[in-house]
Write a structure and sequence with these properties.
Elements lengths: L1 H6 L9 H9 L13 E5 L2 E12 L8 H14 L3 E7 L5 E5 L4 E7 L10
Parallel strand pairs: 2-3, 3-5
Antiparallel strand pairs: 1-2, 4-5
Length: 120
């Protein structure tokens, strides 16, 4: 692990608990950020869209709780991704929103609905 640390200034670990445990054991990290993103769609090896599944229904008006939007905004900001989808259970109308001054589009839809364009 130490040669890896000496060669690279920043190391991203995705999906390996064994490696994270080794980093902890050998004290080979400066900062550890843990994210649990449901689905990250990548194009040519780079994240391009996030899907966050919710085990709850959207409100009858189709509005999503602010906390859900803050969560996907944090994911988009951390991963440099411009588009995200909140996926809810149950019926509801698809909605699309643009986060001002952030360059992020967020869409939401329910399990029985279809996708509305979330910024392309």
């Amino acid at each position: 692990m130490q040669p890896l640390r000496e060669k690279h200034q920043i190391i991203h670990v995705i999906g390996s608990l064994d490696l994270v445990q080794t980093l902890f054991a050998d004290r080979l990290f400066d900062q550890l950020n843990l994210w649990n993103v449901d689905v990250v769609h990548s194009v040519r090896g780079r994240p391009s869209m996030i899907f966050d599944a919710k085990c709850k229904a959207a409100s009858a008006s189709g509005a999503s709780p602010n906390a859900d939007h803050y969560q996907i905004l944090a994911y988009c900001t951390a991963l440099g991704v411009p588009r995200a989808w909140l996926v809810y259970a149950g019926a509801g109308q698809p909605r699309s929103r643009r986060v001002l001054n952030m360059g992020v589009s967020a869409g939401s839809f329910s399990g029985t609905g279809g996708f509305a364009g979330a910024g392309g």
